[in-house]
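Checklist before submission:
- one chain only
- standard amino acids only
- sequence pasted in full

Submission:
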Amino acid sequence: LIRLVHVVLDLLYNLFFPLFCFLLVEGFYHTGDLCKYVQRMLGFAFLAEIPYDLAIYGKIVKLDGQNVLFTFVIGLLVMWMLTKVELWSIPMYGIILFGCAAAYLLRVDYSWYGILLIVVFYVFHDQKTKRNLAAAVLLFWQPASLVALLCIQWYNGERGRGNRTVFYWFYPVHLLILYALQYILMPARMGF
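Returned file contents:
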């Protein structure tokens, strides 16, 4: 049962990660205040780190990996730096390489691959066919992720409705729920 739950969760994460990368880029294009956007994302990244470590490693602090919100912070900073240079220039490739190296060295979730996916959605923002082909190349080894491209294709460009804070809170709360379920179902694995 536990193995099945892990398989289902992996499928869901692989499906949702490209969607969240795409929405991050949309947020970047539509934000009125990039500094506040980065601050909010960074604040929730730190808030979610203990729930992430508990859910993934069963420990309060584990430096082997950081949650995906840190990936998104790096992605936001990379996009900001890309606005300062000409596309397809040497500085652009340097910025992308720097972002990928930072993600790898900081051991953020999805590592350099996550940064590349964000860059694909950013660079090909207004070119749906190129965007989807480039994203499909990055996602080919995760078939569930390819389904996300269909959802992205249907996006109408309009801003969503609702309270975005709920979505930020969902991440750390769902990690705590996953940890609690693991603790209940497998106390020996959790070190208790």
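Reviewer check: The chain has eight helices and no strands.
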